[in-house]
From TrEMBL:
Residues 42-232 form the START domain. The keyword Coiled coil applies. This is StAR-related lipid transfer protein 7, mitochondrial. It comes from the Eukaryota. Its main location: mitochondrion. SUPFAM superfamilies: Bet v1-like. InterPro entries: START-like_dom_sf, START_lipid-bd_dom, START_lipid_transfer, START_STARD7. May play a protective role in mucosal tissues by preventing exaggerated allergic responses. GO terms for cellular component: mitochondrion. GO terms for molecular function: lipid binding.
Length: 242
């Protein structure tokens, strides 16, 4: 990857890194959910899709496209916010608990903000090709407001050219906000995940909508199970809060 980057030109962080303002807007999404009347009309328009014991799922159309943006609000009481947060960010551990991962690597880091470029290849249901994502992510822990935020979005990277064995997903964005019920190391938290991507399929919109709306809760349950396993087995994960 390094030699490819040198040959194709180095990745330029300016304009690609996730800035403080993006983190702030993501944290604000939790306030929008809880107090929608305090925000402009364009921030509303979410349609309920599904409600289960631990979460609720909404969607809204993305203007100018046939796609939707999705939002999940949920709670867990049996793991700590720190465990849940670390399991999401630890790429090596995810290769163990997420059987769909074919490749998941940190390509490079931005010393100015801590943003990271990730290359992720994931299996899709047969007979579709696997998908690959190149995205930048940044996380933040706000002890004063008792919040943890993780923002990811697709970028172009000269050192990671397209592979004909995969379909490159160029439109992808994810915002996760975690609010502990008490402290970062005490069981119990709420989370809000706002997510959109264009998986580049030829299937009708309702099929894509079904795949995303069913796949997202399934992923969150796998993430929760992985956090429980890490807690029970006292696995040594990187602590991203330290």
């Amino acid at each position: 990857s390094l030699m490819a980057a040198i040959g194709a030109g180095a990745f330029v962080w300016d304009g690609q890194r996730i800035e403080e303002e993006e983190l702030r807007r993501s944290a604000q999404e939790l306030q929008q959910l809880e107090n929608p009347e305090a925000f402009p009309e364009q921030e509303r328009g979410w349609e309920p899709v599904m409600e289960r014991e631990h979460f609720r799922l909404w969607r809204r159309p993305i203007p100018g496209s046939a796609l939707f943006q999705y939002r999940v609000f949920g709670s867990y009481t049996d793991v700590t916010p720190r465990q849940f947060f670390n399991v999401q960010l630890d790429t090596e551990y995810r290769k163990q608990w997420d059987s769909l991962v074919l490749k998941l690597d940190v390509v490079e880091r931005d010393p100015a903000t801590g943003s990271e470029v990730i290359h992720w290849v994931t299996q899709f249901p047969y007979p579709m090709y696997s998908r690959d994502y190149v995205y930048v992510r940044r996380y933040s822990v706000d002890s004063d407001r008792n919040l943890m935020v993780l923002v990811s979005r697709a970028v172009e990277h000269p050192g990671i050219p397209e592979d004909p064995e995969h379909v490159r997903v160029r439109s992808y964005e994810s915002h996760m906000v975690i609010r502990p019920h008490r402290g970062f190391d005490e069981n119990g938290f709420d989370y809000l995940l706002t997510y959109s991507d264009n998986p580049q399929t030829v299937f009708p919109r309702y099929c894509v909508s079904w795949m995303v709306s069913s796949g997202m809760p399934e992923f969150l349950e796998k993430l929760h199970s992985a956090a429980l396993k890490a807690k029970k087995m006292e696995l040594e994960l990187r602590d991203y809060l330290s």
